C-alpha cells in the first residue's frame, strides 16, 4: 500500500494536505499584521495561555493554513497577552470528541467536523447537501452569512455552548474514475463508487451507482485492484494519496456536496475574554477564513492543470448529464428536510435560507 504524502486522513474533506503552504503563510502573515493594526489594544496583564487541541496533523492544511495563522494573528493582535498550547494529531482530542472535550475542560479551542455532530448540529448538515455551492468562497460565504444572521445554524452552536470562529469547506467534491470520463447518467449505473459516508453515500445511491464506504487511506489499493470504479473526492485529495497513478478521469463541474469543519471556542471561556480581545479572536478568524477559502479555490484550479498535464482526463459533465444528475440527487435534500421536519426542526426554512444565501 502506498503511504500518503504529508497526510493523516481519517476521512472526508477534513484531511487534504495542500501544496504551496509557504505562499499561504506569507499571505496569512500579511493578514495577521493588518488585523493587529485593526485590533484594539488588548487588556494589559499577565499573558494567558489557552489550549487548542484537534485531530489534524501538523502538515495538514487545517494546521498550516488555518490554525497556525489564526494563533499567530491572535497573539500579535493582543500584543502577546494571549498565546496557545497547540496539541495536534489527536494527542488529547479526536475529531468526533471536540465538543465534549471543550465542555470537559480538555481544551479551550478545537475543530468541529459537522458531519460527525449530526445529533448536536443536525440543521448545520444543510451545508453538505448536493447542489449547495461549488467553490470554497461561495460555500463559506453562505455559511458565514447564516451564522452572522443568527439563524438556527448559529443557535445550534450556542445551544451547545460553543462559539464559531472559522468556517472552512473544500471546493465541491468531484467524481474520480478508474476508466476515464463518464458522460451520461447511464454510464454511472452499477458503478461502485467510494464515499466517505453521510449525504455523499445517499448521493451516490440516488445516481444509480453503488456506494461503498472506506477510509481514504484504502482508496489507492481499491482503485488498483478494481474494487471500486470511482470515488467522490475533493480534488486536493488526489495527489496526497497518489491517486493520479490509478485514475484516468476527474470531473470538474459536479455538484456532489462538500464537508464543513469549523474552529470553535468553548463559550464560557470566550465570554470571559475582554470585549477587545473577543474582537481580535473574531476578526482574526474572519481574516483567515476568507484567506483560506480563496487559497483553496486557487489551488483547486492549479491541481486541475497539473492532473491534466499527467495525462488524466479533466473534464466537465455534459449539460444534459448535469441536469439529469441534479434531478436524480433531489431526493437527498428532500430526505434531509423530511427527517428533520419530523423531529420538529425548521428544516425547510433552513434549506431555503441557505440557498438564498448562496444566491447573494
From TrEMBL:
InterPro entries: DctP_fam (IPR018389), TRAP_DctP_sf (IPR038404)
Keywords, ordered alphabetically: Periplasm, Signal
Keyword Cytoplasm in annotation: no
GO cellular component terms listed in the entry, alphabetical order: periplasmic space
A Pfam short name: DctP
GO biological process: transmembrane transport
Domain of life: Bacteria
Primary residence: periplasm
Record keyword Transport present: no
CDD domains referenced in this protein's UniProt entry, alphabetically: PBP2_TRAP_DctP1_3_4_like (cd13601)
Compartments where located: Periplasm
PANTHER family: BLL6794 PROTEIN, PTHR33376
Protein name listed in UniProt: TRAP-type C4-dicarboxylate transport system substrate-binding protein
Natural source organism: Allosediminivita pacifica
Lineage: Bacteria, Pseudomonadati, Pseudomonadota, Alphaproteobacteria, Rhodobacterales
Amino acid at each position: 500500500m502506498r503511504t500518503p504524502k504529508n497526510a493523516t486522513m481519517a476521512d472526508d474533506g477534513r484531511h487534504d494536505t495542500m501544496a504551496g503552504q509557504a505562499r499561504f503563510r506569507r499571505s496569512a502573515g500579511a493578514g495577521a499584521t493588518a488585523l493587529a493594526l485593526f485590533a484594539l489594544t488588548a487588556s494589559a496583564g499577565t499573558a494567558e495561555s489557552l489550549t487548542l487541541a484537534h485531530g489534524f496533523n501538523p502538515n495538514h492544511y487545517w494546521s498550516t493554513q488555518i490554525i497556525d495563522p489564526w494563533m499567530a494573528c491572535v497573539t500579535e493582535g493582543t500584543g502577546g497577552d494571549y498565546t496557545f498550547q497547540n496539541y495536534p494529531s489527536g494527542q488529547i482530542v479526536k475529531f468526533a470528541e471536540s465538543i465534549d472535550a471543550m465542555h470537559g475542560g480538555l481544551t479551550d479551542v478545537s475543530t468541529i467536523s459537522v458531519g460527525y455532530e449530526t445529533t448536536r448540529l443536525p440543521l448545520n448538515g444543510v451545508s453538505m447537501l448536493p447542489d449547495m455551492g461549488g467553490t470554497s468562497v461561495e460555500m463559506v460565504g453562505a455559511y458565514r452569512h447564516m451564522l452572522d444572521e443568527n439563524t438556527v445554524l448559529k443557535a445550534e452552536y450556542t445551544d451547545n455552548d460553543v462559539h464559531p470562529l472559522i468556517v472552512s469547506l473544500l471546493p465541491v467534491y468531484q467524481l474520480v474514475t478508474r476508466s476515464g470520463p463518464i458522460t451520461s447518467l447511464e454510464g454511472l449505473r452499477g458503478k461502485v463508487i467510494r464515499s466517505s459516508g453521510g449525504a455523499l453515500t445517499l448521493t451516490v445511491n440516488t445516481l444509480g451507482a453503488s456506494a461503498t464506504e472506506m477510509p481514504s487511506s484504502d482508496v489507492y489499493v481499491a482503485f488498483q485492484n478494481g474494487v471500486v470504479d470511482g470515488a467522490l473526492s475533493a480534488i486536493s485529495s488526489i495527489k496526497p494519496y497518489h491517486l493520479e497513478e490509478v485514475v484516468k478521469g476527474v470531473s470538474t463541474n459536479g455538484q456532489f456536496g462538500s464537508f464543513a469543519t469549523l474552529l470553535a471556542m468553548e463559550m464560557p471561556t470566550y465570554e470571559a475574554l475582554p470585549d477587545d480581545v473577543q474582537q481580535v479572536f473574531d476578526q482574526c478568524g474572519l481574516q483567515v477564513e476568507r484567506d483560506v477559502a480563496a487559497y483553496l479555490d486557487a489551488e483547486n484550479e492549479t491541481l486541475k492543470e497539473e492532473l491534466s498535464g499527467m495525462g488524466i482526463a479533466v473534464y466537465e459533465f455534459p449539460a444534459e448529464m448535469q441536469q439529469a444528475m441534479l434531478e436524480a440527487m433531489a431526493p437527498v435534500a428532500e430526505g434531509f428536510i423530511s427527517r428533520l421536519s419530523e423531529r420538529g426542526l425548521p428544516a425547510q426554512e433552513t434549506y431555503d435560507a441557505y440557498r438564498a444565501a448562496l444566491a447573494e
